[in-house]
Amino acid sequence: MPNSLSGRILTPGGWLLGRIEFAEHVLNLYPDADAPSELSILPGFVDLHVHGGAGVDIMQGGDTAVQVARAHAQHGTTVILGTTMTASPAAIEHALEGLAEAISQRAPGTARILGVHLEGPFISEKRLGAQPNLVCSATLEQVLHYHSIAPIKVLTLAPELSGHLALIPQLKELGIRVQIGHSAGSYEEGLAALQAGVAGFTHLFNGMTPLNHYQPGMVGAALAHAEYAELIPDLQHVHPGAMRAAIRAIPKLFCVTDATAATGMPDGEYALGSQTVMKCLGCVRLASGSLAGSALTMDQALRNLVSIGLDLAAASNCLSRHPADYLGLPDRGRIAPGAWADLVVLDADLQVQTVVIEGELVSLV
């Protein structure tokens, strides 16, 4: 017998008060006037920028990616990309080796790790943010080497660096989504990169040249021309007004956590790649005071989006459908027959009650 859940179901065509039947995939949706309307059933969250959680960092390699995927599953995240930091080639390879094993088979109770977001080292030393200064220019040979260890789905680079503009179409041919991030480039350089095949922007507003009405910068290029961009909706990285402007300007803006090892942990010191970060009052910073990733979870991201005025369906799209579309996954990020049974059930306060990942009912601790 298939499993089933009842409530107010968000489908691609809108809300349905009814029942969903599923195995690994969604089987059927049925109207049911007696379904509990206080429960909202949304597509599982798709987080394309995750460094860590539960006290561990993906750069530590080994089984840390599994631990991270298990921690985020508790908050309704059903799909993640394991995200690297700028580091030495040996350190990046070590992280990728751990990720490769986790990608090959989903462990019970964990979010599906679909691949890698390679955030460094192909970035600008002028816009490091919380990345260490171990940057270098990318070559196709180097990217192919990393890609052979674990599948790269998203790659962040600074397009103004030597050779990067010519590399973008080659990476696109490999099926890698290239994002502008940690960049000191101009509006014009951003536009040229978009025309060359850049797909999106890494944590929009953070780690890039800001918008000025005389010099629009990378933020201006994104707001004027992008279809997709990441945003960290922890209400610390970006002001709510800027968040709303971006959501209004960019048709398929999607939200990420940029979560670190500090996610789900008490205040204290944690690793972020080779660096030590401090979690205090929900914020993660370097010793210098600079923001260093976040302690955000996707269920809190949803509540934050609703708190600044988005309706629940629009907020859900930013956390599920848009990132799935970005990766070209028509069977993720939506509730429809044939799609993976990735589901999150929320109560009237938008607190997680049930999580289903590829048909598995995840035990919530």
Automatic annotation (TrEMBL):
Give any GO molecular function from the UniProt entry: N-acetylglucosamine-6-phosphate deacetylase activity
Kindly indicate whether the keyword Metal-binding belongs to this entry. Answer: yes
For this protein, the record's Pfam families field holds:
Amidohydro_1 (PF01979)
Q: Does the keyword Cell membrane apply?
A: no
> Which keywords does the record carry?
Carbohydrate metabolism, Hydrolase, Metal-binding
Q: Which domain of life is it from?
A: Bacteria
What does the record give as EC number? 3.5.1.25
InterPro entries the UniProt entry points to: Amidohydro-rel (IPR006680), GlcNAc_6-P_deAcase (IPR003764), Metal-dep_hydrolase_composite (IPR011059), Metal_Hydrolase (IPR032466)
Task: Indicate the segments forming the Amidohydrolase-related domain, all copies.
Answer: 41-362
Q: Where are the transmembrane segments?
A: none
Q: What class of enzyme is it?
A: hydrolase
Which family does the record assign?
A: Belongs to the metallo-dependent hydrolases superfamily. NagA family.
PANTHER family xref list: N-ACETYLGLUCOSAMINE-6-PHOSPHATE DEACETYLASE
**Name the UniProt record assigns to this protein:** N-acetylglucosamine-6-phosphate deacetylase
Q: Which organism is it from?
A: Roseateles albus
Q: Which gene encodes it?
A: nagA
